[in-house]
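Continuing the batch. This is chain 6 of the set; chains 1 through 5 are on the previous pages. Same settings as before, nothing changed between runs. Recording input and output for traceability.
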Amino acid sequence: MKTNTIDPRILLSTLWIVILFNMIVRDLHEFLREGYIEQMMSLQIPEVNMLVYGFVAQIPIMMILLSRILKDKANTWYNTIAAVITSLGFLSTLPNADMDDIFFVIIENILLLVIIRVSWKLSKQPSKRNTELSQ
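Output for chain 6:
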């Protein structure tokens, strides 16, 4: 994938959108499994766990915006930390995962590695805004 011609901020934001869609499709995909809805309704999930799941789900949503507005150095660190936390959230589902869940986790983690790579390249490049301001 040639990323040199794409604005890194737009690329990062788009990658977070792709991850978010993968999360949604992964959840929707589970509804097709026989007995899934009944199984979910019978679970007694503690409120603390629901809060943690909500926090992990909120990260890609926030990173769509933050990837576009943060300065380069902050963008690098926020994207790296967000990718690591999100990856840990995905990996925590593996003990109970079936084959399709494993597939989605692999794809999502590959995308998170790309996000880390792009964000670290961003901090090493001179910013277009800095170049334009100095002219």
